[in-house]
Amino acid sequence: xxxxxxxxxxxxxxxxxxxQQSSSSPYSFFGIGEIKxxxxxENRSMGSLSVIPDSxxxxxxxxxxxxxxxxxNYAIGGSYTTNTLKTTTQxxxxxxxxxxxxxxxxxxxxxxxxxxxIPYSSVGYNLSSISNTEAHEYKGTxxxxxAYLAASYKLSDNFSVGAEMQYNFGQIETRxxxxxxxxxxxTREINTSNATGMNIVTGVFYQxxxxxxxxxxxxxxxxxxxxxxxxxxxxxxxxxVGSTGGESLIDSATDVTVPDTxxxxxxxxxxxxxxxxxKKWAIGAEVTxxxxxxxxxxxADISSTYKNGNKINFGGYYIPKYNAYSNFFKKxxxxxxxxxxxxxxxINNQTVNDKAVTAGIGLPVRGSFSNVNIGFEYGSRxxxxxxxxxxxxxxxxxxxxxxxxxxxxxKYD
Length: 413
Prior knowledge:
Layout: H1 2-19, E1 34-35, H2 41-45, E2 72-86, E3 91-107, E4 111-130, E5 134-154, E6 159-180, E7 186-209, E8 215-223, E9 226-241, E10 247-249, E11 254-256, E12 261-265, E13 267-277, E14 281-291, E15 304-306, E16 309-318, E17 333-347, E18 350-364, E19 371-382, E20 390-404
Antiparallel strand pairs: 1-4, 2-3, 2-20, 3-4, 4-5, 5-6, 6-7, 7-8, 7-9, 8-13, 9-10, 9-11, 9-12, 13-14, 14-16, 15-17, 16-17, 17-18, 18-19, 19-20
């Protein structure tokens, strides 16, 4: 029964991931949009921490973790986010609901395999610039998705290595309307980019006992620079904008030839270390370095540049009593964490930072190793300085993690 449910969810997710608009951030105007968190609700609830080992939850951030799983795992996660956007003079609220990941992980004795689909970036903005003589309106939709295949091998009881191949694909559409006051018609420009590309992620995972209860664990990942190919098209038309915002085409749209381009996805390194009694508690810290220096916008935009970015996160969990069969709440996993990120995006000489506090709970499903995970994240991005926009966001995440035993030899037919 559970396999039928997963197949159905795979189909729904595959369709939804291609169509959903999972960003309402004005900062998704730049580059390939808002870069999405590549991880589970469990990781996100601990400040996006990925260094803590787990035998029943998949870790999407480090491919070396798959061989640490004890059971085949199916996971699907989604989130609901409210955004408050502020300038020095204005304030707006937005909401969005998204599907964040679908994954299947299959462990054997020493090898772990994983396959899944994750949104990588999302574009979703609606902006306007108005002066005494003219007006510009900007709207963007779409994003980039990742389909991945991962493999991990346990070299010893303490050390695992892994690699993940990722196929990137998606479409980004940006639309701008230019109007001059007193002129009846406006000019509309639509730019479309269809993106494809491949990249790889490698990882290592190490853990050892410090005493009979407490373990030390560490991890590292490396994502080399990759190329994203963009097949671009542009259409320009004369339109008339109605009082309610509707558009009427005055003459046939003109297709303008624009060159196809390539973008460099940045090199990324991560290092983490932690300590804990894994069936009781664990804490850890992680640093991620991103080489954004060669990153650029799809089309030239002199108002923004990129520099190297970084992320620092702390987190952990606590379980009152994992084997308390008569007390449900003692088996609940309580998670929390902090995250600070320098995105590397620089606008009007102002660096865009993103910081958040996170929390979450894991609710066990009775009679199985499956569970329901709920996460909460409150954070802010950007600033009102230098004519920018500050975002305050609150996200509620929800995930189902199913576990099953595969490759078990039958004793009886």
